[in-house]
Amino acid sequence: MAVPPANADAPAAAESGGKAAGAYRTIGELSRETGLPQHILRYWETRFPQLRPLQRAGNRRYYRPEDVALVRRIAAMLEQDGYTIRGVQKALLAESKPVLPRSQAIDSGARDAVLAVRTALAAALAEDE
User: Which spans of this chain does the record mark as coiled coil (predicted)?
Assistant: First the structure.
């Protein structure tokens, strides 16, 4: 019977600076993990509204796991995919707001049901007057 090592998460922990994957990271820890200077991370906070780390007393930043993933994604888009800051902003904005034509926002069956309820309510209100 094989016994797993005491620290089975060692590779993942070593990659994330010894912290669990779901742990919050300071700006210094995130900077070391990603290789990005701290001033770049602070600059990105001003350019990407999606990147909002928690700020505690003394403006100390704590990046949530989703913030860390976003930083890695922004870095990859800028460095590997050749996007500009403006291009990344547009791409992230397009993902956050799926654009549907107004006519496709609700399927026709649901639209008909809503119109039927509306008509019934209008008729009921007309009877009360």
Answer: none
